[in-house]
Write a structure and sequence with these properties.
Elements: H1 19-22, H2 54-65, H3 69-82, H4 89-104, H5 108-124, H6 129-143, H7 149-164, H8 175-199, H9 203-216, H10 221-233, H11 237-249, H12 258-276, H13 282-291, H14 304-321, H15 323-338, H16 340-347, E1 351-352, E2 362-370, E3 377-381, E4 390-393, H17 400-403, E5 411-422, E6 427-434
Parallel strand pairs: 4-6
Antiparallel strand pairs: 1-5, 2-3, 2-5, 3-4, 5-6
Helix pairs in contact: 2-3, 3-4, 4-5, 5-6, 6-7, 6-8, 7-8, 8-9, 9-10, 10-11, 11-12, 11-13, 14-15, 15-16
Length: about 450
């Protein structure tokens, strides 16, 4: 099932503490000061940057004072056309990147140009944080689910540049605001890495990045949803279900919109029941996921197949160990498979177990008495102590002293004549049965031996 969980990452480029890193223009101290007598290479201390002429400087000055990003881009193109070789080419690229970044959120064409210009800036300055940031932010959006390999590589490289060149805390920023800004930066870098790994079909690598990202910032419900999808595709169903539960239940900062939360929660509930075989335990996982972004290391969910295998193993072990239960189970299976014909020919009016294989009584747990004080009906669970599958009916109420020995929750032995049965839910009814050690007022009833097979 596909989800359209919004990344809500694009909006952070102009928000709060990140703005100073991403929207400021290059330093405006590039005044026009050209010494015509200076040697072409600049001073001996290092290369000196020079304007080609006054017109180039005037272009720069006009761009630095222009507020409209589209007008800036036109002037930048003029600058590049007129002065393709410029000592200030890197500054020009920075202007270009910043101007395009103001348009990219709402203009896919500008986003594509931004990625290209940011890539050029990274070639000129391999540690340029802003260039790496915009590639990591807009690359996944531009690339989608099937990006070209070169874009995938570019985004992954940019994310590494971001993580390896985190800016230092500005003096005028509080520790709390800086921590928030730094978390946003790291979240975007991890998101870019995970997107690149997913695009390469490297799900384990994507999962590792998502896990690291959630460890760094547990409030990212959208990342939990993306992590869930990667785990689900990688057939890691218990962990995937936990992350879907997280995305659908978390309601703190960074929570998904209500509609997407409900979508994730509905998916969790349906898939949990499908995988586990019932709703049992689902609420506990939702409660746990609401307060934890990651499952515990030993987290698992028993699948329906695993449950069925365990139940089958336990059933076979019980059949092998308990001859009475083996007979009971064989009769049940035969009645459910063959129905009335088998009941009429082999079970009805027969005394069972009747000494077959040396077994004289069945054993079960009392589930209910009707009426409670002087019962004429005792319902018993033989296969499962909580699930009724045998009814003992008496023509006369059990005497008071018998009730002391036949109590709800108590295990009793019994044998008797089968009177009727229902296939679903399974129930075998005995008429005036015998309960060893318990005196009843049951009249004698003709019986016939059960046919041996």
């Amino acid at each position: 099932m596909e989800f359209s969980f919004s990344r809500v990452r694009i909006s952070v480029i102009a928000a709060g503490a990140l703005a100073f890193l991403l929207t400021g223009l290059p330093a405006s101290s590039l005044a026009f000061a050209q010494d015509a007598a200076a040697p072409a290479g600049g001073q001996a201390a290092g290369p000196q940057k020079n304007w080609k002429d006054r017109d180039e400087y005037d272009l720069y000055d006009k761009i630095s004072k222009t507020q409209d990003p589209k007008a800036q881009i036109q002037l930048l193109q003029t600058w590049a056309d007129k002065y393709p070789q410029s000592d200030y080419a890197a500054d020009r690229l920075t202007f270009w990147v910043l101007a395009l970044s103001k348009l990219a959120a709402n203009d896919p064409a500008s986003a594509q140009q931004l990625i290209a210009k940011a890539g050029d800036l990274l070639k000129a300055d391999p540690k340029n944080f802003r260039a790496a940031y915009f590639i990591a932010l807009y690359g996944p959006r531009a690339g989608g689910a099937n990006p070209p390999p070169d874009l995938t590589t570019q985004v992954d490289a940019a994310a590494h540049v971001m993580l390896n060149n985190l800016p230092t805390k500005p003096a005028n920023l509080s520790d709390a605001d800086w921590t928030k800004a730094k978390n946003q930066i790291v979240d975007i870098a991890y998101g870019a890495q995970a997107w690149a790994a997913t695009a390469k079909k490297d799900l384990p690598a994507a999962e590792d990045v998502y896990k690291t990202s959630l460890t760094n910032d547990p409030t990212q419900a959208a990342v939990s949803a993306q992590y869930a999808k990667a785990l689900y595709e990688d057939k890691k169903i218990p962990q995937a279900l936990f992350e879907y539960a997280r995305a659908g239940s978390y309601d703190g900062p960074g929570a998904l919109p209500d509609a997407q939360k409900q979508q994730a929660l509905n998916f969790f509930k349906a898939e949990y029941k499908n995988y586990h075989g019932s709703d049992e335990g689902a609420d506990q996982i939702v409660a746990q996921a609401k307060t934890s972004a990651l499952p515990p290391d030993n987290f698992t969910i028993v699948s329906a197949n695993e449950s069925a295998t365990k139940q089958a193993d336990a059933l076979n072990a019980r059949i092998a160990a308990e001859p009475a239960f083996k007979i009971w189970y064989v009769i049940k299976q035969s009645l459910q498979d063959k129905g009335d014909a088998f009941f009429e020919s082999d079970v009805k009016d027969a005394e069972i177990p009747g000494g077959a294989a040396g077994v004289k009584t069945f054993s079960g747990t009392v589930i209910s008495l009707d009426p409670p004080d002087r019962p004429t009906k005792v319902v018993v669970g033989v296969e499962d102590p909580a699930k009724p599958d045998a009814t003992l009916e008496f023509s006369e109420p059990l005497p008071a002293d018998a009730v002391d020995q036949v109590k709800v929750g108590q295990k009793i032995d019994f044998s008797g004549v089968a009177d009727s049965f229902t296939k679903e839910p399974y129930m075998l009814t005995f008429k005036d049965p015998t309960i060893p050690g318990v005196k009843t007022s049951a009249p004698a009833k003709p019986t016939r031996p059960r046919r041996k097979r």
